[in-house]
Specification:
By secondary structure, this protein is an alpha/beta fold. Helices cover 36% and strands 16% of the residues. The protein has a nine-stranded mixed β-sheet, sandwiched between helices. The chain binds uridine-5'-diphosphate.
Length: 245
Amino acid sequence: MSEGSTEKTAFKRVMLKISGEALMGDQGFGLHPPTVERIAREVKSVHDQGVEICMVIGGGNIFRGLAGSAQGMERTTADYMGMLATVMNALAMQSALEGLGVFTRVISAIRMDEVAEPYIRRRAVRHLEKKRVCIFAAGTGNPYFTTDTAATLRANEMACEAIFKGTKVDGVYDKDPVKHDDAVRYDTVSYDDCLAKNLKVMDASAIALARDNNLPIIVFSLDEPGGFRGILAGSGTFTWVGEGK
Ligand code: UDP
């Protein structure tokens, strides 16, 4: 689709979930500002169409609790460090979006009032109504969870119509498409199949929470320029996880 397309989207309010690794570019670690800006432009192009946008960004480019605990750290402390990593990513995305003229709020599940707003559901809804992008940081605020679950939780609370999970590949495959040439992409797949076949969509608690609230998860490639806007308009390649379209 060309720049400046006026193609309309059927969605009014969505959750975009991306992993922390999406922000690190080819560096293998941390934040790569040009990559953050590229993703911010994708978000802006959807925002420009009047779609209300929630975002959750993981922290895996900086720190993962499980990796820390595997190296001997106490698990809950390691998880809190992981949650703090997500705040850094959220601030980087805020800076990139505001540099493009998009108003945002970083809303943290762990209080740090000098840095981010505390999470107050009604206030967050108001921000969305005022067309501010809400970047939800610090996961659920609880150890033993992931940002996939945080994204599903906040998407439910904010009454988002779907979760858009931006990944490196253009959907959900029966096996890893990077390693297997014969991997087959699903157009649609049910929540129960994701769980039963252990498909790499989101972790099991996030899928169960989406299933119990009938919240579709749309898996698409974040590397495709214009991809997010295209998927919202119903074009491009993606996998729809849910109970039928
Ligand atoms: N985390 C947590 N509770 C949450 C969300 C995240 O403890 O509600 C921690 C957990 O240690 C996790 C880390 O934050 O490994 C980073 O999040 P995640 O692994 O989901 O990031 P992603 O893989 O999406 O980059």
